């Protein structure tokens, strides 16, 4: 009987999926960054239930060097709120790092997103974090081009 129980426990262990990382609110993680942003890291602000076997993890991204076309001497260094797929995030993080105090805007962004998400009007990112950063950088610079000189210069 004991041998049967032991064999059963081993079989259950082999077929039960193990999560590589257990994310928690407040944690900070290094991730697979763009080449020029190796000091960048993400911080988890909220975790929500998502579809089926995925959760939606709201993150901020710190220590970025996003180039802004009308401010060649400055970089955008922080993205306050991005909802992302937990499954994607697991394949992007490399190791846990020390967390930092986040600006209030990280939480305001979440509240706005959550309200829209609950109403079925907002989604979440499923592409790699570094691709999210590049896409966001492109969108910001495209908006600056559209606005012409009406966009404030970053200092």
Describe this structure in words.
The protein has 155 residues and is α+β, with helices and mostly antiparallel strands. It contains 4 helices and 7 strands. The protein has helices at residues 2-15, 86-92, 105-118, 129-147; strands at residues 28-31, 41-49, 55-62, 66-67, 75-76, 79-85, 93-97. It has a 5-stranded antiparallel β-sheet. It has a two-stranded antiparallel ribbon with strand order 4-5. A hairpin with a 5-residue loop joins β2 and β3 (55-62). Mean pLDDT is 82; it is low at 1-20.
Count of separate DSSP helical elements: 4
Strand order of the largest sheet: 6-3-2-1-7
Termini separation comes to 72 Å
Shape descriptor: globular
Order of helices and strands: HEEEEEEHEHH
Unreliable spans? 1-20
Question: Hey, roughly how much beta strand do the residues contain?
Answer: 15-25%
Helix share of residues?
A: 25-40%
How many β-strands, per DSSP?
7
Summarize the structure.
The chain is of the alpha+beta class. The chain contains 4 helices and 7 strands. The N and C termini lie far apart (72 Å).
Secondary-structure blueprint:
Elements: H1 2-15, E1 28-31, E2 41-49, E3 55-62, E4 66-67, E5 75-76, E6 79-85, H2 86-92, E7 93-97, H3 105-118, H4 129-147
Antiparallel strand pairs: 1-2, 1-7, 2-3, 3-6, 4-5
């Amino acid at each position: 009987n004991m041998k049967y129980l032991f064999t059963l426990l081993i079989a259950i262990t082999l077929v039960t999926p193990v999560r590589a990382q257990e994310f928690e609110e407040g944690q900070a993680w290094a991730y697979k960054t763009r080449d020029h942003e190796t000091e960048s890291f993400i911080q988890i602000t909220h975790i929500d239930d998502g579809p089926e076997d995925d959760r939606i993890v709201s993150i901020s991204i710190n220590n970025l060097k996003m180039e802004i076309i009308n401010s060649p001497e400055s970089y955008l260094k922080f993205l306050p709120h991005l909802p992302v797929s937990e499954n994607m995030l697991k394949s992007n993080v490399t190791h846990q790092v020390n967390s930092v105090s986040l600006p209030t805007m990280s939480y305001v962004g979440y509240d706005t997103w959550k309200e829209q998400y609950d109403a079925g009007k907002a989604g979440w990112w499923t592409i790699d974090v570094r691709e999210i950063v590049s896409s966001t950088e492109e969108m910001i610079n495209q908006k600056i081009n559209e606005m012409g000189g009406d966009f404030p210069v970053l200092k």
